[in-house]
Amino acid sequence: MREGLRHLAGRVWWYPHDEDAETVQGGVAVIADDTGSILVDAGNAPTTARRIQAAIEAAGLPAVRRLVYTHHHWDHVWGACAWPDVEIIGHRAGARLLADEARRPWSHHYLREQVERDPRLGPSFSARGRAMPDWQGFVVLPPHTEFDDTLTLADGVEIRHVGGRHAEDSTVVAVPDSGVLLLGDSYYPPPYHLREPGDGPDIALVRWLLDEGRYGHYEWFVDSHDHPNRARDVRELLLAAEG
After folding, report:
1. What predicted TM-score, i.e. pTM, was given to this entire model?
2. What confidence tens digit (pLDDT) does each residue in 130-153 have?
3. Share of the chain above pLDDT 70, in %
4. What value does the mean pLDDT take over residues 160-175?
């Protein structure tokens, strides 16, 4: 995995995803602010979160004070317990789901037991096991601050619920002064164990975000498990996909 933060645009920095798809580690954004940086997603495990913390310190960025979940899936939230004294922000639907997740008896034994019951969980639960060398101190953390539709933070960062089939709480995070829209996994198909034949990316959602007046002029459209893409390149890919 490539270590370190990449400066993307304005006050947005990017910690890259792991290109080994079986690792299931998405990219994480840091929005620098003098009063304390905003982290977008927490990493897939406390060990990953600690690498991100070291990268933030090495880059000389302000300490993280707020963490925004793009959605409740494990690879975006399991690192949160390594971020002490940070306000966690997330959609209300995700808060409910994470409260349920927090009650599960997470362990390697529990992961194996669940895969035996439903083999389609294998890829996800195997990745979880690899991400967690031990479970000491691990807890799933629901958000402290919940929202329903949109939430604008004091520093101008805009958080917007878009939903979709990948996760009902999918949220995008916009940084207007930097021209960056962070998509999370919002346009992805459903998770593997819920996927049906014919399920694919939500092209209509990407088209709407590109054409919607609020984001149409943004330069960067960044999803979690790919390299950051410029809006013009996303438009070209959509044209090719739409034939």
Report:
1. 0.95
2. 999 999 999 999 999 999 999 999
3. 98
4. 97
In a domain, 89, yes or no: yes
Write the CA distances from 57 to 5, 45, 194, integer angstroms. Answer: 10, 19, 39
Tell me the residue range of the domain where 138 lies.
Answer: 6-241
**Could you give the maximum distance between any two Cα atoms of the chain, in Å?**
51
Q: 202 in a domain, yes or no?
A: yes
CATH number at residue 95: 3.60.15.10
Q: How many CB atoms lie within 10 A of CB 2?
A: 9
Which residue is associated with the tokens 């399920």? 199
Number of domains the chain is built from: 1
Q: Considering Cα of 228, then 232, then 233, then 236, what sign does the dihedral take?
A: positive
* DSSP H helices in the chain: 46-58, 74-77, 92-102, 108-117, 122-131, 203-211, 231-241
Asked if residue 1 is part of any domain, the answer here is no
Residue 142's Cβ-count burial label (10 Å; 0-12, 13-18, 19+) is buried
pLDDT at site 214: 86
**Could you tell me if residue 174 is inside a domain?**
yes
Residue type, 187: Y
- Give exposure, 68-89, as e/b (b: 16+ Cβ within 10 Å): bbbbbbbbbbbbbbbbeebebb
Q: How many CA atoms lie within 13 A of 15 on its CB side?
A: 28
